[in-house]
Amino acid sequence: MVTNTYPRHRTPAEHGSPASRRRFLAVLGTAAAALPLLGACGTGSGGAADPDHRGPVGGALPRVRVSQAASPGRGVKRTSFPITAVGVTWTGSPHGVRLRLIDRSGRPGDWQDVRAGCPCGKDPDILRTRSAAPPHRALVPARGSYGYQLDVDAGVKVVEAIAIDAGRLGRKGRTTTPGTPSTPAAPSGSASDVAFPPPGLLLRADWGADEAKRLTVDGKQSSPTRFTPVQAITVHHTATPVDDPDPAATVRAIYEQHAVSNDWGDIGYNFLIDRQGAVYEGRFSDTDGIPAHNADDEVVTAFHTFGFNSGNIGIALLGDFEEAKPSARMRDSLVRLTASLAARHELDPLAGVTYVSPTSGKSTEGPAVGGHRDWTSTECPGAATYLDLTDVRERAAELIR
Ligand SMILES: [Zn+2]
Predict the structure, then answer these.
(1) What is the mean pLDDT of residues 245-261?
(2) Does a structural domain hold residue 345?
(3) Less crowded by CB within 10 Å, the N or C end of the chain?
(4) How far is the CA of 116 from the centre of ligand 1 (A)?
């Protein structure tokens, strides 16, 4: 096992011209004009929390530790720290990997099938690998195990496996207390339904993003920020547990996998939402204090939908929603966030768009508010969420009518 001590990014090359978009001014009317201007963001966990929900509220930077298997594949990998999640990247069959966790005393648990997660990624990656299928990736929760073992089918190659300890937030002596809800849920129908940033948004500092992970060893942005006008909003799921006891740790684990292991230089989503409805700022968007945007109201390009990343706001629901339905709080937050973004960017949530990729120049018809599978072949955002999107669109449209 090799322990990562610094990022190993390369500087990516992103190309393209400004995107065009459809406008839906008539639908928005005065609602959009009445929205609050961009400004300072709140902090703290949104909504009242379950007793077991450990919401992030800032504090010391969590100590994130990673063990990278020198030769991923079969064989037991042990760690000296409790593992939050195991990140696995492989090629071959998406169903060809199994994993079992090892407890502190070395006892193995049951074998479990590893399900490939949301196949997000950088646009240039798919252009470079046009002839080859992108690898499968998964983030398997480890819940404090001290090791793991992989078993793979013939024809499957594990190209990377990392054990992540996402650390803990809010250490003793800090002024903030983890799990303290600071922003009560807003009554439905209030102006805050479509406020942006959403009330209680957890900024990167709040969930413990180590900004050094975005940088190369010489201090430059590994994936320099690039902004384009918004054309669409795309919903994902993270294929992590629905009953996540520490969603902020999961966000840090995803950040670690995306930024460092996948070498994208940052987390791939623009926003994430946990089961309590707390919204997390995702991809870094410079230091002007406007989450996901620049001062010209363009959105930062993230890495969530191959070929359709520029001008596409990626919102990831924390959990696996192939069968389970997102919680009411999660859906409510998704509706409000979608409504606020649609209003800002003059998108009709019920409409279609002709997406023009600034990267490839290709035009594609798609929904203004859709799921990952509307743009590419994937199960993401899960069948339950996908079916729910009709309701999300209608409720978001209602809010900004
Ligand atoms: Zn996805």
Answers:
(1) 95
(2) yes
(3) C
(4) 11
